[in-house]
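Example 3.2
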Amino acid sequence: MDKDMITSNHNISITGRKNINISGVKKIENFDETEFLLETNMGYLKITGTNLEIIKLDTYQGDVSIKGKINSFIYIEEGKKQEKQESVFSKLFK
């Protein structure tokens, strides 16, 4: 089966604001305990919260499960992704 066929679906499921399951993830751009930036089949997805951590990562199927307190998730434009990457570096060099 072609990998693009497997990851063509994109779904998000949130349980009790504590667990989020995402399918159709192409790659995890960056993450820390307060924010994740994922590239999905439908664009870039930014998840914010507290005590966030990956509990499942299936790169073949494109499935990711994250636990912690979920505060928000939003799809962002390509240009905004670059701003996020710069802010990660600025946090490192403060």
